[in-house]
Structures are given as C-alpha cells and as structure tokens.
Design brief:
Strand order of the largest sheet: 1-9-8-6-5-4-3-2
Strand content: 15-25%
CATH topology of the largest domain: TIM Barrel
Helix content: 40-55%
CATH superfamily of the largest domain: Aldolase class I
CATH class of the largest domain: Alpha Beta
Order of helices and strands: HEHEHEHEHEHEEHEHEHHEEHHHH
Number of domains: 2
Structural class: alpha/beta
C-alpha cells in the first residue's frame, strides 16, 4: 500500500488512462476489477452517453472507478454535475485550470487528480487542493505538453516541487517502466496506450491492429501551434505535415481537422484518413490482451524488479 492505493482505495497503483473512443465502461470496469483504477473517458461522449457508461460501469464492478473530464470542452460544467449526481468516487481532470472544480468535487467526497506537463502546473494543482497529480511526459499519446519534457525528466522535477503524490504517465506499459517511475519518485502509474489495445477497449479493431503493428518512430507530436497531439503516422498525418510546411494558418489547420477526425480513425477504423492518437510506447505493444491480463503482467513484472531494486 502507498498513498495512491490508499487515496483511491485500490489494490494496485495502476490507473487506466481516460482515452477518447477507447475507454468506456467495459474497459474501466475490467481494470477496476483487476485491482487498478479504471477511468471512463468522457472526452468523446455527450451527457446522456456519459450517464449511461457510469451506470453500466457501476453494475459491472463493485470496485472504485472514475471519470476523466477534459476541462477544455464547453460541456465540462454539465459533466461535473453528472459525476456529482451519479456519486462517481473519483474524477481526473485535464486540459484546464485545476482550481475551477476541485473544491466543489471534494465537497461531495470525490477524490480528484489533475493531469499536468510541467512543475508550474503541478504547484497550481497542489494549491487548488487536488489529491494527486498525473505528471504526463512527452512520450504520451493524444494531447500533450508543448514543452516536450520526457517522463524520465518530468517525474523527478515534479516530485521535488510538490508534497502530494504523483502518478507517472507517458511511455509506461510494463512492470519495468512502473519500477523506473517509482525510482524517480512516483507513487502510481497511468497507462493509456496498452489499454487502448486491450480486448475491452472500445477502439476499432483496425486501430488496435495499427497499434500492435507500429514500430520505432511511427508516432509524432504535431499541431503544436494549435493543440499539440501525438499521432500515428498515416495519410491524415502527412496532410498535417504538408500544411505545416506550407506555414498554414490556424484556420486552415482547423479546416483540415474538421469534425470527427478522431472518431473516424479510432472508433470507426478509417486508419488512413482518421486521427490515430497513441503514445510512443505503441512500438513495444505486440499483442491484444484483456485488461486483466495486462494488469497481472505489469504487477508480476514489477514485483520481480522490486525484489531486485528495493
């Protein structure tokens, strides 16, 4: 037991990332049932769908689970009300000011964590009263910090700058990586990409296959002038690169993105024209497993390393 397992009342300090189009109630409940903390990714949901997933998750597990809410979206207020009304025990917020909802959530006995990519944001989190911080390095998939600070550098910087527990994220998919994060001062890990390729993930099978087929250098952080995001390279990615070489305006990039690109790629399986958000660690993922198998493998490998290191 450590502070992360105590705060969230879980067996293992393993958090499943709240990924759009990948982490619905099936994945969240499977991770929670395996002893970690499953998160429903609300970023690709409307209010009715989020409520449905919360209720189905509660039926599928009697263990703690949470909801990830990107604060950048206009419906964040509505989603905060839903998690309060539905008595969700844990909320992970990201992409916004941690102070905006933390006090309200904690007044309803909800544990709160916030995702950051630099020490200044981490200190704001601590001042706002969050229970834990997710420090997400440059390796992570999806929307990312512009600083390009790697997990190996970010974790020790943040753990030195705050007193509350830190959850490491970005490039973590194994027990060895979990042990490395703990050596750097983290007390938990958040894992996205490996769970995105799990059997319970709601991602399209063609996207899952692209993940396990990917290799070294097949992801890239792009759109830094708009909203930095790490993507698998495909036809759509090459179109973005060409636009950026031409010094396209933000308006032109937004027009290229259009609406529904991430749904098109990750959920509908258009792996050439859709947006495929995934982390660098995809190059190390070579099979599709159940969430329970993933948690078990990580814990077993970590236990072996722990005996050698600690």
């Amino acid at each position: 037991m450590n502070r992360i397992t105590q705060i969230f009342n879980i067996k293992y300090p393993i958090i499943q990332g709240g990924m759009i189009w990948c982490s619905g109630w099936r994945l969240a409940s499977a991770v929670s049932n395996a002893g970690g903390l499953g998160l429903i990714g609300s970023g690709s949901m409307d209010s009715d769908l989020l409520t449905e997933h919360i209720r189905k998750c509660r039926v599928a597990t009697d263990k703690p689970f949470g909801v990830n809410i990107p604060l950048i979206f206009n419906h964040a207020d509505e989603f905060i009300k839903i998690v309060i009304d539905e008595k969700v025990p844990v909320v992970f917020t990201s992409a916004g000011n941690p102070a905006k909802y933390t006090e309200l959530l904690k007044s309803h006995v909800i544990k709160v964590a916030h995702v950051v990519a630099n020490t200044k944001s981490a200190q704001k989190c601590e001042a706002s009263g969050v229970d834990a911080i997710v420090a997400e390095g440059f390796e992570a998939g999806g929307h990312n910090g512009k600083e390009e600070t790697t997990t190996m550098v970010l974790i020790p910087m943040i753990t030195k700058s705050v007193s509350i527990p830190v959850i490491a994220a970005g490039g973590i998919a194994s027990g060895k990586a979990m042990a490395a994060a703990f050596c750097l001062g983290a007390e938990g890990v958040q894992i996205g990409s490996r769970f995105a390729a799990s059997k319970e993930s709601s991602a399209h099978e063609l996207f899952k296959n692209k993940i396990i087929e990917s290799g070294d250098g097949d992801t890239f952080l792009t759109l830094k002038d708009l909203i930095a995001v790490r993507l698998l390279k495909n036809k759509f990615f090459e179109q973005i690169q060409q636009k950026e070489k031409e010094c396209a305006s933000k308006e032109e990039l937004l027009e290229l993105l259009g609406t529904g690109r991430s749904r098109q790629g990750m959920f509908e399986g258009d792996t050439e024209n859709g947006e495929l958000e995934i982390g660098q660690v995809a190059a190390l993922i070579n099979k599709i497993e159940t969430a329970g198998e993933i948690v078990r493998e990580i814990v077993e490998e970590y236990s072996v390393i722990k005996k050698l290191l600690f």
